[in-house]
Amino acid sequence: MKKSILFSFLVIATSFAASAQQFTIVKDNAHGDIENQCKTGTCWSFATTSFIESEIIRKGYKAVDLSEMYNVRLTYPKKAESYVRFQGKQQFGPGGLSHDVLAVIEEYGIVPEEAYTGFVSGSKEYDHTTLDEKINSVVVEAVKSPTAGYQKYVSDILDNEIGALPTEFKYNGALYTPASFRDAMKINAKEYVCLTSFTHHPFYSSFVLEVPDNWAKKSYYNLPLDEFQRVADFALGKGFTVAWDADVSEESFDAQKGFAFVESFQNEPTIDQVRRQEAFDSFETTDDHLMHITGTGKDDKGNAYYLVKNSWGTEGLANGGFQYISVPYFRYKTVCMIVHKDAIPKEIAVKLGM
Predict the structure, then answer these.
(1) 45-187, what's its fold?
(2) Fewer CB within 10 A of the end CB, N or C, for the chain?
(3) Per the confidence metrics, is the pTM higher than 0.85?
(4) CATH architecture entry for 1-30+189-354
(5) Quick one: average pLDDT of 111-126?
């Protein structure tokens, strides 16, 4: 059980006070509109696509609405193959991490939303319930009865459920391929750095982050917590944004009211490396959801917050779908993040051998 009765009561009691809390934006870096992932487990693509959209603006280009489902369509077959090759001994599902989008960008490119919507039946709301059930059945059966033909079944399901991939498309009157569009927007996947902060591996080295959604077994650079936070603060202050993976299962993470605290805005605890590690080791901190940190804010007491763009739409949500995340919550419940290499302070980059 993750919470004591006393803590649950504290959260309930303080949430009433927090709902009246006033927040002010301090720094709001360029970003696109709030999107809605609807009935899908594809937050990893929505958050990281939003992050790349901000990068395009930061690099001096006009804002473009990129396709989240393009990344999803190209990642599912890779997840399916990995699951089968590991004989079903790893997680298979709709989840993933930001580096999955970077892998698609590097190998294939990017496309605008208008070139690949992910809708095939006229619907304007994503629902991958049937898609996930069908593909799961195929890969489970492929493990039971190995056959080389399962990849075609996976591809056919994806084409039928979210659409066949475009090989070329027109955008603002010009003809592109996914690769040429990526290059035109000056997006280079190798410019982005995966970071985390845990003590069960040496700092300033890299390791394969042990969370179920890291099906691709990608490595993350490991920083002490204070330097990890410093990267986020430096990046946001310099006009960069952050692709953010965090635990959102806490009762104090309230998307409807638009905030997240560890305990309360009146009495937030100090989060150090030890407490953070204990929560990860005990599985209290879980790899739940990816979002996009676009800026910073403060409350009427002067406490600092991160401004987070979610992908749960806007209806019924405070702050138009954005959330204010307290600094202690960030330190406690962040699993990992991705930033542009130039968003890392030079002295920290040197320690990482960059």
Answers:
(1) Cathepsin B; Chain A (3.90.70)
(2) N
(3) yes
(4) Alpha-Beta Complex (3.90)
(5) 92
